[in-house]
Amino acid sequence: MRSIILAIDVGRSKIGCTGYEYNGLGPVTAVNGISHNIPLLAVIANTGNIRIHEVLTAIENCIDETLRLLRLHMPESSYQVVAIGFATSVMNLVAVDIYGEPVGEIATCSDACDREDVVIECQRLIDHIGPEKLNALHQRTGAPIHASYSLPQLRAFYGNENNKSMAKQIEKWQTISSICLFRWSGRPFVQMPISFSEASWTGMLDLHTGCWDDEAVDLFETCNGIVQFQYEVEDDDEEYVEGIDLLPPTVDFDAALPFLRHSIPRNNGDGSANSYWERWPELRSLPVQLFVGVGDRGSVADGGGFIVGSARPQLNVQTTDISPVKGYTMHETPRCVSPHEQVDGNNGDHHSIVLLMAASLQQAALRKSAEIL
Known about the structure:
This protein is α/β, with parallel strands linked by helices. It has a single domain, classed as 2-Layer Sandwich (Nucleotidyltransferase, domain 5), CATH 3.30.420. It has 11 helices and 17 strands. The protein has helices at 52-73, 116-129, 131-141, 150-159, 164-167, 176-184, 196-200, 214-221, 275-279, 296-301, 349-372; strands at 2-10, 14-22, 29-39, 79-88, 92-96, 108-110, 172-174, 194-195, 205-206, 211-212, 233-235, 238-240, 250-251, 289-290, 294-295, 314-315, 330-331. The strands form 6 sheets. Strands 1, 2, 3, 4, 14 and 15 form a 6-stranded mixed sheet that branches. It has a 3-stranded antiparallel sheet with strand order 6-5-7. Helix 2 (116-129) packs across helix 4 (150-159). GO terms for molecular function: kinase activity.
């Protein structure tokens, strides 16, 4: 039985999915002919808004075609899909409603943003924070106050009166990959997390703790116009609403979360039929590891965005002209790279995320063997 890993590449100019063969401790190799790409300008120039509905449709269509090619080239009983992972364009944030659905293109953020209102908001933040606190914030998050990062974009969005009605629909800000995983895993009644990698590229993550930076969150959740979809709960004839909590939990890219470690469920969390059960039969018969997304340049540059000072082994992959992908090099000192800094291996995002997934699957297998012994 051949083990197949699906690697999804969500880029600015194309969406792709490629099948790789995972051989345990051996090399990971791309399966010839098992790949599909859809050209798509995913991000709108200057505004930085993401064509989110087109992107989500393209991702699922790429998986459709990649699985079709697998069925065409391999006997059904000769392979199993064991994992799916993402290399996503950084950074990306998408506002979703209480059903986990995007509320609209305007309520999206990316590092391609260069809008005038966001640039003005950057200057307001710089003036408000002051040099000393600004430097401390930079040291914690690895990011300056810049239009490419999420904090000024989020503040500009909520500060715009034209976005007021849309803002009231927002339950959380998620990433492209976490929206996909929420859909595929049966819309479980959980807060879908995002990876340290994707969170770090927002410029709001404390790289030393793996948690959202307190000051950055405060600057976001106290900005003009901030609001969240409100759940009204009656208690002793009094109504109250929860406080603002708009950012998702953060986890390692291969976090051992039950709803991401089983096959695609037949039913959604609310009991309705999960359409992906029929659509992708390869993902329902055996446990399939669903990995949260890794930022494309982050997967190459900082070992998937792991936390500074962590003792966890990390993967440093040089992906230029690697075919097939072979060998892993571990390191312990990640680095933070700004969105505009060029990183060797940018075109090898499939390769790097596949190696991260393979290393994780190997570690899980070794742990299981140790438990048996």
